[in-house]
Amino acid sequence: MRKTLEEHAAKYAARRIERYAWAGCAVVAPAFAMASDLGPHRAWGWAAGAGYAVAALLTHGSVPLRAARAVAVLGAVVVPLVGLVAAGLGQSEVAVVERSGQLLLTTGGPYVTDPVAVADFNPYLPGTALFGVLPGDARWWLGGAFVASLAAAGLHRAWLLACPLIALPLAVGGIDLPVVGLMCLGVSLAGQGRPGRAGLALGAAAALKWTAWPALPVALALIAVRRGGRPALRCAAVGLCTATAAVLPFALADPAGFYQNVVAFPLGMTATASPAASPLPGRLLAEYVPGGTVIAVVLLSVGALLIALSLVVRPPSTVRAAAGRLALGLGLATALMPATRFGYLVCPLVLGALAYRAPHHAATAVPSVQKALA
């Protein structure tokens, strides 16, 4: 009897927490719509606000919570996505990806050699051009790769898809989604003792955007602790070969265009400023402090060095620890990059969700220890 009462109280508390969460989102989304000067963002805000409001109302009755979450996904992702695609409206990333795909088909490379205007720049690595080559709106493929990667990693949660930081880029367009999805898949496979597949997933992510590269050393540290050095080297070889095969040919074919687009522009080192200008520390340093761009890059390098040292001193032994370490590193990078925006926080958010979901069990003994105990 006591156990039944405790279970009922726990379910009631969970329902109440979810009600407040959807109600909060129902306030935040329309507020975002009123504050934004971008049409796709405004359209998403009003549609998502309605979906969140209905989801909050459904938690008041006896309707299962999964039904409320489905409504939230419908209102925050499906409805605005279909409407925006039909209207031909989207965030600038969609146009960049689709144009890079067309450039790849017509010129053999995804970059403009001498970019001048913001629209000329493509700050993504060559792998993203594949999403622009595929038929239809690139958002279907970007979002599909993200959802498929999360499902393969065991992180299929409706509340995660409906979270505003994820629902917004799903609807208006965002290259960070497939990147973080593949990172989650790679870390999960590393924890399962599948170094080859982990390397393939992480190499594919690294071919899309620089932000995925820190995932490889984190996964290697995890595999080394759990399985030993040889499987870690196998993961490294597969990952680096996959990423190199996708990136190096284009870097060698057009080194000037590659540098201007994917190195100088994201770091704020070109005459044309990046539109990624959210008021995070790195951006504020670059804009208001003399030599601030250099300071931000130095701080970014120091943060990366500290994370790297932590992998040596205290390597992660579980998927939870590895995902948490990677989320911390990417959170610091998002805060300190000279050209940054709040939307980049989707990477530490999703990795944090993986850390929360992953079982916190002890590391599997490495082969030498297993033999000693046998």
Summarize the structure.
With 374 residues, this protein is mainly α. Helices cover 72% and strands 0% of the residues.
Describe this structure in words.
- With 374 residues, the protein is mostly helical.
- The protein has 18 helices and no strands.
- The longest helix has 34 residues.
- The radius of gyration is 22 Å and the shape is globular.
- The termini are far apart.
Supply database-style keywords.
mainly alpha; globular
Draw up the topology in text.
Layout: H1 2-35, H2 39-58, H3 65-87, H4 92-107, H5 129-133, H6 138-152, H7 158-162, H8 164-172, H9 176-191, H10 195-206, H11 215-227, H12 229-253, H13 255-264, H14 281-288, H15 292-313, H16 319-336, H17 346-357, H18 367-373
Helix pairs in contact: 1-2, 2-3, 2-8, 3-8, 6-9, 9-10, 9-11, 9-17, 10-11, 10-12, 11-12, 11-16, 12-13, 14-15, 15-16, 16-17
User: What kind of sheet is the major sheet?
Assistant: none
The string of secondary-structure elements, in order, is HHHHHHHHHHHHHHHHHH
Low-pLDDT regions: 361-374
Task: Work out the number of β strands.
Answer: 0
Radius of gyration: 22 Å
